[in-house]
């Protein structure tokens, strides 16, 4: 049953985790694909989502809402993934501007 599956995952039983993955992987991947720009991003989000699901399954209060709970984790993981990408892009952009400015300063000195 679903209750036994969740209890097994909460007890970190490998067979239960594999079964959860088998039952829900395609649904979670569907969410990841809808929220990503590329197949590679979707795979990264998918992997991060399942790690979070396994680590957080003890917090699940209503077993009947397992699918919706997993979807919410995947959506939040995707959002956080892209916020992190955007932040990293801004950092790289700022570092490139600083480097260019330093090169200009160096050229003025020479």
Structure description:
By secondary structure, the chain is mostly helical. The chain is 84% helix and 0% strand. The chain is elongated and about 45 Å long. The model has no long low-confidence stretch (mean pLDDT 85).
Short description:
This protein has helices at 2-10, 14-34, 39-56, 66-109. With 110 residues, it is an all-alpha fold.
Relative strand content: under 5%
Q: Termini, distance in Å?
A: 75 Å
**Main sheet: strands, sense, barrel:** none
What is the tally of helical segments? 4
- Percent helix, as a range, is over 70%
Order of helices and strands: HHHH
The global form is elongated
**Cα-atom Rg, whole angstroms?**
21 Å
The structure class reads mainly alpha
Mean pLDDT level: 85
Low-confidence stretches: none
Overall strand count: 0
Give structural attributes.
mainly alpha
Topology of helices and strands:
Layout: H1 2-10, H2 14-34, H3 39-56, H4 66-109
Helix pairs in contact: 1-2, 2-3, 2-4, 3-4
